[in-house]
Design brief:
Elements: E1 14-17, H1 25-33, E2 37-42, H2 66-71, E3 76-80, H3 85-96, E4 100-103, H4 107-113, H5 117-123, E5 128-133, H6 149-155, H7 158-161, H8 176-199, E6 203-208, H9 209-216, H10 218-225, E7 247-248, E8 254-257, H11 265-272, H12 277-280, H13 287-292, H14 294-305, H15 310-320, E9 324-326, H16 330-335, H17 337-341, H18 383-389, H19 394-402, E10 406-407
Parallel strand pairs: 1-2, 1-4, 2-3, 4-5, 5-6
Antiparallel strand pairs: 3-10, 7-8, 8-9
Helix pairs in contact: 1-8, 6-9
């Protein structure tokens, strides 16, 4: 059962989502899951560009606007031109009644539009200003356009480190770094709200895609700082563990063993693949020799595994108690009993749509349900009700609509 938003921890929090794409707005999405009233402030015309990437530039194509469904659920849309004086004044009126502003606009653009921390907190000193950047707020590249593929993935070192030796680099899936980085912004905003309870004052919170990318593979970077010899995550077996990489079955399914100690491997797989000779092979009897001959051991095991399907091997591994994990397909993930049991794909209020479920934000408070995910808004769907809520008179709202400063459905 999903909770009434009025009973949730953030039910009294008003959030203005002034971002675009994913990294900033996704932080507001998580807040909405816990009851925050999130207003998506969008420019006139096409609105947030993220509305229009279904099937564009190599993206997946679906019958429903899946990017918008995910990141803009639970939000209400206000379409307004804040570049015009009257639109800007309407925004400032909303800022006075807001608790949080979240944005991922470049610092120079925020300053140009006068929607940066300095200008907005002049109207509301209690405001929490959450800012996501690509490369940080300082330095020569502070105002460069960034995406998670460029900042989180490539610039942080992840892209090069994940490249198998002698092979080209791999690109990352869209949004992988954005969604991860958004959790940092969410955490920072929540910490600032907690601080405000004690001081009565707001503050700016900022993070960046590149900082989150560096944090994501911090162990590798820290190893480099400590003079470590790096091991690429590929199949060259520099780590000396023949079971630290994936194996491929006859039906082209890839899986890995949960074997972290190389000394465990030979005895486990010898029984699994019915190769008792492995246990007598002196190359596989002591840790140093196992590390030295990891590639040989892998080849022996892989040759046998390639003869049967994953289902056949899974039965054998289950009987022998050999723990393993398969590289799940997208369809398998959505049907995974473990994920379903933990509520990772909650039902969505989408009565006329294809998608009846969405992906839950990865934070849970035991005993407290979240808001049932509501359908993402159409552009300007809530313009009139939002402006009324924030105190603009009916006549003023109509004037803004008549002047083409606000659009409403």
């Amino acid at each position: 059962m999903m909770a009434d938003s009025k009973t949730l921890p953030l039910s009294d929090i008003k959030v203005l989502d002034m971002g675009n794409w994913i990294a900033g707005p996704a932080a507001a999405t998580v807040m909405s899951d816990f009851g925050a009233d999130v207003i998506k402030i969008e420019p006139l015309g096409i609105g947030d560009q993220y509305r229009h990437i279904n099937g564009a530039n190599g993206m997946h194509t679906a019958d429903e606007n899946y990017p918008w469904l995910l990141t803009s659920r639970n939000k209400r849309s206000l379409a307004i031109d804040i570049k015009q004086a009257d639109g800007y004044q309407a925004l400032l009126t909303m800022v006075e009644g807001a608790d949080v502003v979240i944005t991922n606009f470049r610092p120079a653009l925020l300053e140009k539009l006068k929607v940066d921390y300095k200008h907005l907190t002049e109207r509301n000193p209690r405001l929490i200003f959450g800012h996501m950047t690509g490369f940080g707020q300082k330095g020569a590249e502070a105002n460069d356009v960034a995406f998670d593929r460029t900042s989180w993935w490539a610039r942080s070192g992840l892209m090069d480190f994940m490249r198998p030796t002698g092979e080209p680099t791999r690109t990352s899936t869209v949004g992988i770094g954005d969604n991860a980085a958004a959790m940092s912004l969410f955490g920072g905003v929540m910490m600032a709200l907690f601080e405000r309870e004690h001081t009565g004052k707001g503050r700016e919170v900022h993070t960046s895609l590149v900082a989150n990318g560096a944090w994501s593979h911090g162990l590798t970077l820290q190893a480099t700082m400590a003079g470590g010899k790096l091991q690429r995550l590929d199949s060259t077996f520099d780590t000396g563990n023949a079971f630290g990489v994936a194996f491929c079955t006859a039906d082209d399914r890839w899986f890995s063993f949960w074997i972290h100690d190389p000394m465990e491997g030979p005895s486990l797989v010898a029984a699994m693949i019915d190769e008792p000779a492995i246990l007598q092979d002196e190359r596989f009897t002591d840790p140093e020799s196992i590390r030295e001959h990891a590639q040989v051991l892998y080849d022996i095991v892989q040759a046998k595994i390639a003869l049967k399907s994953f289902a056949e091997w899974q039965q054998v591994m289950d009987e022998l108690g050999i723990r393993h994990v398969v590289a799940s397909s997208q369809e398998e993930v959505l049907k995974d009993p473990q994920l379903l049991e933990n509520g990772i794909f909650p039902e969505m209020d989408n009565p006329n749509g294809i998608a009846q479920n969405t992906i839950d934000s990865p934070i849970n408070l035991p005993g407290l349900d979240k808001v049932k995910p509501r359908l993402a808004p159409e552009l300007g769907q809530h313009s009139i009700e939002v402006l009324k809520q924030y105190g603009l008179p009916k006549e003023e709202i109509q004037r803004l609509i008549d002047k083409g400063i606000v659009s409403a459905l």
